[in-house]
């Protein structure tokens, strides 16, 4: 373990510790988790180093915003859980970091995110719901992510993301994004409207199929009615 005091205006690595990772479906990886001093938003973000960093190759970096409902409980209202699982494996295979950012609900917090879900149940899309609650479409600020990478000695990355705003913000804070690589598409009857809103409203690079299988959608409606 290494612990360094905060100094100056930049972030520094506070602690690094080995954390073995094993997912419910049996994927295993050796993770090295770093915590930080001096992040501008003072949140407890972490960076997980996975795989072997290859000489001459820019590391693969995934900035994943915390999603309790998707990451922990497997909610299918979003694609966060599958994206996290995929990211762990891709970063471990290619070498790099997964930055786990404490920005629940695109930065509005867990309770507000659940309030937004209730509005979505009444017909609002994910962005309209935020606005009805008095929030912007997306409150996430990736300056802390850039600080984390700088503290780790990373200035150039391959970014695993469908979100052009992540690339734009990283570059604005001095991180060179060599290229942005898309995640998989994890569409279900539950999250189809959510994903389509991300594509149409904020230009996410998600290649969505034309429609979810109507039989799947109908079955889900029956399940929801029974609940």
Molecular structure report:
The protein is of the alpha/beta class and 227 residues long. It has 2 domains: 12-103 and 140-186, GTP cyclohydrolase II (Rossmann fold, 3-Layer(aba) Sandwich); 187-227, no CATH class. The protein has 9 helices and 7 strands, in the order ββββααβααααβαβαα. It has helices at 68-72, 80-94, 104-107, 110-121, 126-132, 143-151, 164-172, 192-202, 214-226; strands at residues 12-22, 28-37, 46-50, 60-65, 96-101, 156-160, 176-181. The chain has a 7-stranded mixed sheet, with helices on both faces. A hairpin with a 5-residue loop joins strand 1 (12-22) and strand 2 (28-37). Helix 4 packs across helix 5. The termini are far apart. The model is unreliable at 1-8 and 211-227 (pLDDT under 50).
CATH topology of the largest domain, anyone? Rossmann fold
- CATH architecture field of the largest domain: 3-Layer(aba) Sandwich
N to C succession of SSEs? EEEEHHEHHHHEHEHH
Number of domains: 2
Q: Quick one: overall form?
A: globular
């Amino acid at each position: 373990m290494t612990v360094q005091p905060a100094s100056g205006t930049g972030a520094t690595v506070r602690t690094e510790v080995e954390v073995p990772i094993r997912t419910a479906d049996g994927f295993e990886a050796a993770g090295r988790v770093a915590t930080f001093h001096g992040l501008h938003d003072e949140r407890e973000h972490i960076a997980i180093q996975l795989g072997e960093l290859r000489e001459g190759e820019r590391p693969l970096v995934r900035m994943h915003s915390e999603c309790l409902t998707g990451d922990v409980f497997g909610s299918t209202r979003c694609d966060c859980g599958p994206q996290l699982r995929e990211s762990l494996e891709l970063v471990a295979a290619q070498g790099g970091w997964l930055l786990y950012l404490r920005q629940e609900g695109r930065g509005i917090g867990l309770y507000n995110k659940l309030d937004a879900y209730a509005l979505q149940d009444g017909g609002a899309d994910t962005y309209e719901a935020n606005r009805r609650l008095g929030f912007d479409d997306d409150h996430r600020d990736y300056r802390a992510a850039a600080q984390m990478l700088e503290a780790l000695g990373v200035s150039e990355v391959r970014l695993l993301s469908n979100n052009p705003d992540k690339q734009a913000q990283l570059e604005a804070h001095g991180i060179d994004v060599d290229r942005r690589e898309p995640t998989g598409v994890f569409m279900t009857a539950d999250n189809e409207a959510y994903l389509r809103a991300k594509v149409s409203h904020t230009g996410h690079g998600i290649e969505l199929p034309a429609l979810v299988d109507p039989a799947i959608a109908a079955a889900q409606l029956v399940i929801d009615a029974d609940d």
